[in-house]
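hey so u asked for the seq, here:
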Amino acid sequence: MVKVRAARPAEAEALTGLVMRSKAHWGYDAAFLASCAAELRIRPDEVTARRIVVAEDPEGTVLGLASLEGGAPLATLGLLFVEPSAIGQGVGRILYRDVLRRAVQQGVRRLVIDSDPHAAGFYRAMGAVAASASPAGLPGALVRFEAAPAPLADWARAWTGGGRAVHVGNVAEFNAQFGDSSLDREQSAAHHYSCLAAFYSPYPSALVLPRAVPAGWTELVCRQLGWTGVEVYDGLVERGPGLVEAVRARPALAARLTGAGEPLVPWGLTRPFGLLAGRPWRAGELRYESKAAAHGLFGRILAEGGHPGIVLPAQVRAAGRWAAARLLAARARAGESTVLKSEHGVGGSGTTVVTARQVRAAGGARALLRRLPRGPLLVEEFVDGPADPGAARDLTYDGFVDPAGRVHEVGAALMDVTAGAYRGATVGPGAVPDWAEKPLLAFGAAVGRGLAASGYRGWFDVDFVVDAEGRLAPTETNLRLTGPSIAFMVAARLDALRGAGHLVRIADRVELGARLPEAQLDELCADLARGCAELGAVFVPAIPTGAFDPAPWMGVLVAARSLETLDAAEALVRSEAAAVGAMFDAFEPADRPPGPARGAGERP
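ran it, structure tokens below
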């Protein structure tokens, strides 16, 4: 493993030689190299002053060097050179990230990089932003880049105490405790979604997953997010919701996960998780996961005043199916659309928007209700959206309540919701319209205070729709991690790793033209990572196991510093995924197993 250490003055001559070899690697002639020699020479008395560090292999061979020059708030990446034989092995990436880390520690907020043109692609891939025009007086063909070194966000430090955490993918277990008929009893979708356990905090130490996952997936995720030493325990339970019970049935594994003193982070709170983590279990803590209870909480907050621009849709809990039918029929006769909700549900399951035309086409309200999941129904006023189809419609607030009952604001996100079903979300600067951000954050914080007062501790979100007058209507709370929360975690990590200002989009479902063998899925993801890097974006595969379903798909994360680049990266991912899938469709063996064939185990 490559490690970084401070350079020594006695190494100055050897380091100068490395710099000149690295410069010559790009094909410059002797005359040009001679003209650069004085500028690139490292003198012994400069090694400490220029804050030069070296990267070396386990045998002590120096593979590269970098310098951080100047002071806060503006500094310069004066040198970053890699031994030609080590180029392409990740040494430059390690050195660059070390420079950013040290810059944060020293209070630097703007880092200037004057790059050799041959290295411009590297700095772009590392997240540096090219200047729109080279400044006057910049020597030769150098290209100026800038980065904004940033510490890990305050909320992210508070979430796990600033350290690493064990991530427990208990999605199915969380869903199953509600027993709602709108939820999939087999929990197959939940097992796919548990792959998001990779992203429950900005830097995991271990992942605990119900299904086996491809080794290439975890390796690429770790490379893209700069993680090392992540242990993976997968294949613990292929069917059913009992992930934590499977862990507790393995005393050595349970002791390993709980004995290091690191926080355990679940998708959501459950009784088995409480037993594993030594956390008191209070069933009532999750009562606002109920859509009716959340609606009541919203009403109480609005009754207290102080939230202009927030409106609450009317909601009635039907006494039975026929009562729901009568309510629905009355609204249809008035020409009004209606939202029918099960008490619980995830990702839009159990939520159906019904228009008056659909009621008539189905042969009446009773006939339509027969097609919906059994169980109690909430009949809610449909909120008409803005006339502009491109205007923001679905927004969300994310935050958490810490063990002391303090509410921490994480932020607001724009969601992609189609026909009532969640499809993804975008977080970061400019993702949410300016007019919506202040009232959304204020109301979300008020909900957090209500949850804290009820005894809840953990992550939560509040979902909103925008009405025709540009007001926000809260629709539900989720007392667990969510798709948008995953995007926030990745944004926090990338900001700390590459500099501030990342937009991150999570897309739950990117269709593949055919099931891919595991090796080809790895190859596709590697190609997408390279293609997005060329655009100035970052690609991270989020849900790989859907690629082995009969109707194959995968969940992805893309990140960039502008919405235009983000859109371009998502378009690239979707088109390449469909095209590569089609290539393998004709060659797929009919009897190939539909996924990784590994049992429970540990991988670095």
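The first strand starts at residue 3 and ends at 6. DSSP finds 20 helices and 24 strands in the chain.
lmk if thats what u needed
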